[in-house]
Design a protein that fits this description.
The structure is a single chain. By secondary structure, the protein is α+β, with helices and mostly antiparallel strands. It is built from three helices and four strands. The protein has one domain: Gyrase A, domain 2 (2-Layer Sandwich), CATH 3.30.1360. The chain is globular and about 40 Å long. The two termini are 25 Å apart.
């Protein structure tokens, strides 16, 4: 099943984060995203024509995060937005991070 068709599952902690190999495999579905050097986060910077468009995107990603109950770190300003996913409870990556990254990508593509 593709990442876009999955839903986030609650992560209670106490499980190991994904290995670098697992993360790299999942990245194949979202090739625009980058894996951090320590393989504990994924991120992507998006570009926009102005501040308002960046803010609208941030708000849409925020609504998605609330629906899925999995929240990214977001940085934005005039014409850009950087989205960073990792699972705080396990101090690394979980499949949820990749699910939300794929859905964030879809929001961007459909703007």
């Amino acid at each position: 099943m593709s990442l876009m068709n999955k839903k986030c599952t609650p992560c209670q902690g106490g499980i190991p984060p994904l290995s670098r190999e697992s993360a790299e495999s999942l990245l194949q579905e979202i090739p625009q995203w980058q894996l951090s050097e320590n393989a504990d986060k994924i991120s992507r910077q998006y570009r926009f024509g102005n501040f308002v468009k960046a803010l609208e995107f941030v708000n849409e990603v925020g609504e998605l995060a609330e629906r899925e109950m999995h929240h990214p770190d977001i940085q934005f300003g005039w014409g850009y937005c950087t989205v960073i996913f990792y699972t705080h409870k396990i101090h690394g990556l979980h499949e949820n991070d990749f699910i939300l990254a794929a859905k964030t990508e879809s929001i961007y593509e459909h703007r």
